[in-house]
Amino acid sequence: MITGEDVYKVIEAMVPLYVALILGYGSVKWWHIFTRDQCDAINRLVCYFTLPLFTIEFTAHVDPFNMNYRFIAADIISKVIIVAVLAFWAKYSNNGSYCWSITSFSLCTLTNSLVVGVPLAKAMYGQAAVDLVVQSSVFQAIVWLTLLLFVLELRRAGFNTNSKEENINIEDGRKDIAVVGEQKSFVEVMSVVWLKLATNPNCYSCILGIAWAFISSRWHFEMPGIMEGSILIMSKAGTGTAMFNMGIFMALQEKFIVCGASLTALGMVLKFIAGPAAMAIGSIAVGLHGDVLRVAIIQAALPQSITSFIFAKEYGLHADVLSTAVIFGMLVSLPVLVAYYAALEFIY
Question: What job does this protein perform (predicted)?
Answer without folding.
Answer: May act as a component of the auxin efflux carrier.
